[in-house]
């Protein structure tokens, strides 16, 4: 029987949901013609009516081809393609015709038609059982559901709503459409007969309270869609009531002679009928809401909770007068705290549909004030999709009311424009644009700008953008800020004319003068906008790479590139002229030409602007010695000298003139410095250093071999080595310039013909330079030593045996192999300059940001040094034993270099497993061996294998009946064998048996005790051993043992040799088992729910609950009704919490790293298998199969 609980449905004729109804309008004449459903029948339990009230049985097959006896017809495949379930699954028939056929059968025999509908819901849940007519008439719903539960397939937990594939995705859509069309087609008569809807709602209520997940999930979806369809009907009835009432009032207000009494009586009768129908719909909706929604919105399954929240959002949107109030909004507000991102996401999307309609905002005011803090905090949600929707919702709230958000709330969203996740940043950019950069009256602002002599009205907005960028104090992330605003503020960011105007022209009266910091920030932002427009893809760190542009995007990119070229090709020389002394501004401005359409110089007859640009670049080169500026000039020349452009010759001439001048200056200054020697003054040193910096910067991007820079650089280095008085900056630049010269010579040889003379000359140059670099390793200046070390590593890598791969055997004379002396020097350099203590640096004052930045920079440099040497080990350029001194630093410097050492170890193992194992043994020392082995199970297994080999390697000279001399070493191995994983113990034991003879196995004398003890330690644990390294874990319980047997794949017997190889640390692919015993969690059923008041006695004090949560909302707002219960207290929720706690405990006790092949992501994927809830439930002694 339906629960009669009153829901007050407001009847506002101006309701906005009218446009969302589907075929719900009904005129007075249509109401008059629908005679069915007027006579109200007494409610009773479905299926218990007397036989006299039944209509005559239909023929065995109805109009739609379905069996009418309530039993599915079994064809060869075991399913009847004419059942409702099969028809909906196939989706080949129009849903309205399917419903019409069912309505026709319902009019002939409603019991059999309802039986078809009941079996439809049962089969949609994945149940193989079928409800028969006898069961329908003689059994209660609970008995029927219990019977159907036994018909579930125990081997599979899948059911139609969870199955993958396009067919089942379409089935979900068809399933929902079936319910909506069913109510729509029955809305004028059948749904008011107090039988069909009573039966369906009663069935769905019982199914939704089942412990079987498939029943709960399917019935909840059906009930929520049924409720949505009823909301449409209720909205339509409300509208018709209002229309009828207006017609009645209009007719009654007529004068007596013109008043039609018959029409008044007809209108009164229709109004009464509509009110009765409205009451019926209210009762149905109350039954669904109170019987299903209030229980399932806190179900243990996230998908079920998400369905409830999604549909209540639809109800609020369709019928806001009835549902958009605090009594229903509280459910959405509470669920904002849900533990699953999927449910939180549905909450936010439901709220977005409400906040989009500004007319609804007054009804949301209390909700906004109550849950605003929670919504703002969700902008930092760990799930990026949730964070994006939270930001969009905050933007809608801001759009609805400027005063709804405080400055602190806005600042929490502002900083997200610098997020590395692009969707989050773009959503934050939309919020920022709405708050700061949206123009309220564009036409008035444009008129004002023209009156003031400005070409663009965006001047103030650009100033505000610059101010925001400076105040954010993240000046290195200008590209991120531009990318975040690109979708929402393109008109502002592409206004390059306005930006140039602000930089070049003097401010007008009333405008503030741009300061130096503001000008630098504006130039940086302008360059970032130019890059974004020209490249049409996000900056590095945003996105997964360059995607293929659509035709529209490609056209926009071309148009933007042409427009920025048109604006800046003229303005760039003027900007360089104004800021030519400012290194930061010039370095940014020199990036602009690479985004030009350089053909415009020739096609647009703008060679004079090209000459002006080249002139300004030459001035910049003369004035600056900063490497950043010089490299920008070099790159600009390289781009302009591209062979694909007709301007190449003009630019090449200018470049050659510049290099000639620099070379003359460099040659004279070097001669002066060499002649004066120790007597050289600061001017001589400055002349050499400044010119050398410029040539080095140009040599990086240009082939300057015809100027033979190596000769003078080599002379400077030799003088520095011989006299020891060369300034460190000159030495560093000379080393770098010589390195570039060698690389350009190698490029010419590999790309052109390879003459013997060229190879000999290059070999001589490389040999002499390597000798110089080796000598520089002992230099007193650290920068010189570090530069020499890096160049040595790079050149040894380039001129290694890999140079001749790919059919380049002719380059064999250029291959260099470092001798042992050089290898030792490189290794000692790493040990002296990489693995150093930072105690003195760590004692610096806290809060010194500059000092912290210096520490990070120094660590980055040391990591590069270690990585350069590690590459020599990985590519077999340096002997692998040299890595022993690197590996032994693993524990002490784990935080700084652990990833590099681990990767080196992994690559070395792939290169030569035996040599790698020997190298590891060399690196183990007793002071740090225990911690190292605890961190790496790989090293632990290698240690045991090599230890066994060491113990048996030397035979006893007295004969095989005596123990080997090194057998006592097995006592040492006993200390670590207990920490081996179970599968690794088997591998090590198999390896041990290869060295043991039958005679050894039978010995029990004291001299054999090390072997006996070690062998027993490997056999300890057996199949129930989970993880030996976990101390304090109790023995596994019976349930966990059964679970392990079920989850373990069958192991086939193999030969010991095969098992030793396939189970070794090289080939192992096993899964670590869970430590300790897992207790089967207690199941809680929704069918026998504890009294809320009694359950409240066991609920801990929640005074400290989070603001906006359900208990806090209940306590402070009083919106909670008697039906409400504490959130998330339903099926399986408690057991899931236990599993998460056990996961945390497992992470705390796990102290051995997995092999290098299993990274953290893979380990995270393995953990759910350790604590699989399905495996736990299988061991519980339950009377019926459960599905979760």
UniProtKB/TrEMBL annotation:
<comment type="function">
    <text>Component of cohesin complex, a complex required for the cohesion of sister chromatids after DNA replication. The cohesin complex apparently forms a large proteinaceous ring within which sister chromatids can be trapped. At anaphase, the complex is cleaved and dissociates from chromatin, allowing sister chromatids to segregate.</text>
</comment>
<comment type="subunit">
    <text>Part of the cohesin complex which is composed of a heterodimer between a SMC1 protein (SMC1A or SMC1B) and SMC3, which are attached via their hinge domain, and RAD21 which link them at their heads, and one STAG protein.</text>
</comment>
<dbReference type="GO" id="GO:0007062">
    <property type="term" value="P:sister chromatid cohesion"/>
</dbReference>
<keyword id="KW-0131">Cell cycle</keyword>
<dbReference type="GO" id="GO:0008278">
    <property type="term" value="C:cohesin complex"/>
</dbReference>
<dbReference type="GO" id="GO:0000785">
    <property type="term" value="C:chromatin"/>
</dbReference>
<feature type="compositionally biased region" description="Low complexity">
    <location>
        <begin position="1028"/>
        <end position="1042"/>
    </location>
</feature>
<dbReference type="InterPro" id="IPR056396">
    <property type="entry name" value="HEAT_SCC3-SA"/>
</dbReference>
<comment type="similarity">
    <text>Belongs to the SCC3 family.</text>
</comment>
<feature type="domain" description="SCD">
    <location>
        <begin position="293"/>
        <end position="378"/>
    </location>
</feature>
<feature type="region of interest" description="Disordered">
    <location>
        <begin position="1023"/>
        <end position="1068"/>
    </location>
</feature>
<dbReference type="GO" id="GO:0051301">
    <property type="term" value="P:cell division"/>
</dbReference>
<feature type="compositionally biased region" description="Polar residues">
    <location>
        <begin position="12"/>
        <end position="28"/>
    </location>
</feature>
<feature type="coiled-coil region">
    <location>
        <begin position="257"/>
        <end position="287"/>
    </location>
</feature>
<feature type="region of interest" description="Disordered">
    <location>
        <begin position="12"/>
        <end position="82"/>
    </location>
</feature>
<dbReference type="InterPro" id="IPR016024">
    <property type="entry name" value="ARM-type_fold"/>
</dbReference>
<feature type="compositionally biased region" description="Basic residues">
    <location>
        <begin position="1043"/>
        <end position="1054"/>
    </location>
</feature>
<keyword id="KW-0159">Chromosome partition</keyword>
<dbReference type="InterPro" id="IPR020839">
    <property type="entry name" value="SCD"/>
</dbReference>
<dbReference type="Pfam" id="PF08514">
    <property type="entry name" value="STAG"/>
</dbReference>
<dbReference type="Pfam" id="PF24571">
    <property type="entry name" value="HEAT_SCC3-SA"/>
</dbReference>
<keyword id="KW-0158">Chromosome</keyword>
<protein>
    <recommendedName>
        <fullName>Cohesin subunit SA</fullName>
    </recommendedName>
</protein>
<dbReference type="GO" id="GO:0003682">
    <property type="term" value="F:chromatin binding"/>
</dbReference>
<dbReference type="GO" id="GO:0005634">
    <property type="term" value="C:nucleus"/>
</dbReference>
<feature type="compositionally biased region" description="Basic and acidic residues">
    <location>
        <begin position="1091"/>
        <end position="1101"/>
    </location>
</feature>
<keyword id="KW-0539">Nucleus</keyword>
<dbReference type="GO" id="GO:0000775">
    <property type="term" value="C:chromosome, centromeric region"/>
</dbReference>
<keyword id="KW-0132">Cell division</keyword>
<dbReference type="InterPro" id="IPR013721">
    <property type="entry name" value="STAG"/>
</dbReference>
<keyword id="KW-0175">Coiled coil</keyword>
<dbReference type="InterPro" id="IPR039662">
    <property type="entry name" value="Cohesin_Scc3/SA"/>
</dbReference>
<feature type="region of interest" description="Disordered">
    <location>
        <begin position="1091"/>
        <end position="1116"/>
    </location>
</feature>
<dbReference type="Pfam" id="PF21581">
    <property type="entry name" value="SCD"/>
</dbReference>
<dbReference type="GO" id="GO:0007059">
    <property type="term" value="P:chromosome segregation"/>
</dbReference>
